[in-house]
Amino acid sequence: MTSYQGLEPGARMRVLHVCAEVYPLLKTGGLADVTGALAPAQRRQGCDVRLLLPGFPAILEGIRDRQRVAQLPPSFGADVVRLYHGFLPDSGIAVYVIDAPQLYGRPGNPYADANQQPYADNYRRFALLGWVAARLTQGLDSFWQPQVVHSHDWHAGLAPAYIRAAEQSSGRRTAGTVFTVHNLAYQGRFSRHMFGDVDLPWRFFDIEGVEFHGDWSFMKAGLFYADRITTVSPTYATEIQRQEQGCGLDGLLQSRAHDLHGILNGVDETVWNPATDPLIAARYSTRLGTGKSACKLALQRETGLTAQSDAPLFSVVSRLTEQKGLHLVLSALPGILQRGGQLVLLGSGDSALESAFLAMAEAHPRSVAVVLGYDEQMSHRVIAGCDVILVPSRFEPCGLTQLYGLRYGTLPLVRRVGGLADTVVDSSLENLADGRATGFVFDSFDDEALGAAVRRAFALYGRKAEWRQAQKQAMQQKFAWADAATRFTSLYGQIAV
Ligand code: ADP
Ligand code: GLC
What we know:
Layout: E1 14-18, H1 30-44, E2 48-54, H2 57-62, E3 64-72, E4 81-87, E5 94-99, H3 101-104, H4 122-137, E6 148-152, H5 158-170, E7 176-181, E8 189-190, E9 211-212, E10 215-217, H6 218-225, E11 228-231, H7 234-239, H8 250-255, E12 260-262, H9 291-303, E13 313-320, H10 326-338, E14 342-349, H11 351-363, E15 368-372, H12 376-385, E16 388-391, H13 401-407, E17 411-415, H14 418-423, H15 429-433, E18 440-442, H16 447-461, H17 464-475, H18 481-495
Parallel strand pairs: 1-2, 1-6, 2-5, 6-7, 7-11, 11-12, 13-14, 13-16, 14-15, 16-17, 17-18
Antiparallel strand pairs: 3-4, 4-5, 8-10, 9-10
The structure holds adenosine-5'-diphosphate (ADP) and alpha-D-glucopyranose.
């Protein structure tokens, strides 16, 4: 077993990922899949990689071999702050966890209360995360100091700011910093009067700093102070430099264009592989055999749909939010049903969308199944059992469900935006002829465009050999975490201390 003291044998670069979620312990979206898979991929390439996480109950309870590293003074409104070290289950990746019960000891969603309201003290909860990251670069754990601190999304956005502040006061560089934007729309923006509580110099409260329209923003801190910025697909890296998707930060992102890289997420083959997946009714490879149809039949039975092998089965596995464009699916649904298709939706979020989909399921119980909630195991059964996965997003930094769809021979039907544009090849006549097609792609964010793509999906479904060819092509796509890990290693090489 790896000891937390000292370096792992043969290890090279020491990298600390700072993040709020990690699969399999705590997940609200794709961020957790990424942090849970990138670290093992980097370790396989010889990196000495560790994670720093807030001590939410699921994380404190889930780590193995917990040992105390340090006791910190009361900070950010928490009387007790301790740093633990342990290991993730399954991957065995080393993690530091901040135990601060007053800030993190709240079950359920890590960001919001039972009424979906963001916690009022979120600025202190996530300031502590960034602050501890900076302390780790200064020897908080005397056995291990990162050479690179890689922060993810707004929750970890203050880490590069604290590191810069400490470096300015000591006159000594301690670590290179990378900040990855998984979603620019969630910014961690707070009022000016809260800034005094987070122990950053007031000179940082500046347009050349964390200040954002009179408030201050964790996201902006990450974008401003990190040595390098990445985001999760090449197309999104370009989109966020324009006003339409820049969320007010496009100017800053343009000014940092040379430091900004789009590095596509991957698929964790230990979790998402139809040939080995223990969560699905039958396993299958590119040849499909009877495996995929067995998964479809099992899903139809499980969800109460008519068990009909030749009914095109569409799916949605998603947070039900504005970002995901699911009102377009509601509009397309009558057309899907009229052509003899079916829909399974697994998701939760916006209550108006939840009710609208539920009403469709009540009206058409043999053709529409709606499962509200978050169910990791069921997400595998849905993605394996369907013919098409719908991802008609308004914007999509990368998107993972379309990648899982491709892997499982479930053709993605997506809008040409962000990572969706980078990963799905439309079944146009030319692409079909060239054997490149892997799904269906539409452009305009409107009912008509999605409706036309759905009609094309039905048309291709009727041509079995071509459908089969697209499935095969989809399943053969490689979205390897090793490729992303290699790109990060070369970035780290430019900035490591
Ligand atoms: P985002 O992070 O914007 O939600 P992604 O496509 O990157 O979008 O990642 C979503 C992740 O969350 C995927 O792993 C997907 O399978 C999972 N997911 C989304 N909704 C559900 C749900 N209701 N139940 C189980 N898993 C879900
Ligand atoms: C965000 C984005 C999603 C991306 C995920 C992981 O949640 O919305 O597109 O796949 O992060 O990077």
